[in-house]
């Protein structure tokens, strides 16, 4: 089997224009620089400066700014459609409050056979039930705030229920959010089990419980104003105060990549 490189991974970030300066800015100054060619930002407004910084990889989905099923599903469906158009082997999607370590992402992804049906991520709940087209289904889903990865063969099988318009239809019929809908399509309709990973993290879990000495092993780490990683590990790398580094992304980046200019 041919070796997988970072160029084989399509990385998408879902955001909103209102978060460009409070969330996306931290991504652009840290981990985006390790995966500029592979990472695309899906949002709901134009931003000339951000698009320039992102090497033209800012996508205004024109899906609307609300958090209803139709707006969020339209965005994720656009991510999906764009991934398919690239021909890449993997779709790895994250939210705008995730620090992603592209080096570690590649290491983890290389542990799977991309030609198989692979759906890897982290659960937030064990099982959910929903009614869809007259039947009751049990399903699982990878928590969207932690991110997930889907292999191309599996993504192609999702096409009847996914995509910019189809995903919204699926959500509305099954009455569920966009990340739930992905899991529903995969685990209930296609009957492909999720592969659980402890390397994807969102702010839905207690981030302070993650040992800082294991940060280098993690694929993604989330943040919120009230839930942030603990950097007290005795590291010799540069640690910024919280006013300078509210997300803790800069301090984390310096821990993982100390040769970065702003870490010296």
Automatic annotation (TrEMBL):
What terms describe the molecular function in GO for this protein? glycosyltransferase activity
Answer whether the UniProt record assigns the keyword Transferase to this protein: yes
Q: What is its main location?
A: membrane
According to the lineage, what is the superkingdom? Eukaryota
Show where the Fringe-like glycosyltransferase domain sits.
3-248
- A Pfam family reported for this protein in Swiss-Prot or TrEMBL: Fringe
Topology in the membrane? Answer: Single-pass membrane protein; Single-pass type II membrane protein
- InterPro entries, alphabetically? Fringe-like_glycosylTrfase
Family, according to the entry, reads as follows:
Belongs to the glycosyltransferase 31 family.
Q: Which residues form a coiled coil?
A: none
Q: Which UniProt keywords apply?
A: Glycosyltransferase, Membrane, Signal-anchor, Transferase, Transmembrane, Transmembrane helix
Where located?
Endomembrane system; Membrane
One GO location term (cellular component): endomembrane system
Quote the protein name from its UniProt record. Answer: Fringe-like glycosyltransferase domain-containing protein
């Amino acid at each position: 089997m041919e070796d997988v490189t970072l160029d084989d991974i399509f990385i998408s970030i879902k955001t909103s224009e209102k978060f460009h300066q409070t969330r996306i800015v931290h991504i652009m100054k840290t981990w985006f620089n390790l995966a500029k060619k592979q990472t695309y930002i899906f949002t709901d407004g134009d931003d000339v400066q951000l698009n320039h910084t992102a090497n033209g990889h800012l996508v205004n989905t024109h899906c609307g700014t609300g958090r209803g099923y139709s707006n969020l599903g339209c965005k994720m469906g656009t991510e999906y459609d764009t991934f398919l158009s690239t021909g890449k082997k993997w779709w790895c999607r994250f939210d705008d409050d995730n620090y992603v370590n592209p080096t570690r992402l590649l290491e983890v992804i290389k542990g799977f056979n991309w030609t198989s049906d692979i759906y890897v991520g982290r659960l937030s709940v064990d099982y959910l039930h929903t009614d869809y087209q007259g039947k009751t289904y049990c399903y699982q889903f990878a928590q969207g705030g932690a991110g997930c990865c889907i292999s191309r063969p599996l993504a192609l099988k999702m096409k009847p229920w996914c995509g910019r318009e189809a995903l919204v239809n699926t959500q509305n019929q099954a009455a569920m959010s966009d990340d739930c809908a992905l899991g529903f399509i995969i685990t209930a309709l296609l009957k492909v089990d999720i592969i659980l990973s402890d390397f994807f993290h969102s702010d839905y879990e207690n981030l302070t419980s993650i040992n800082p000495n294991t940060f280098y092993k993690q694929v993604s780490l989330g943040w919120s104003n009230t839930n942030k990683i603990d950097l007290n590990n005795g590291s010799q790398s540069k640690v910024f105060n919280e006013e300078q580094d509210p997300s803790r992304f800069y301090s984390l980046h310096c821990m993982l990549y100390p040769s970065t200019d702003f870490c010296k």
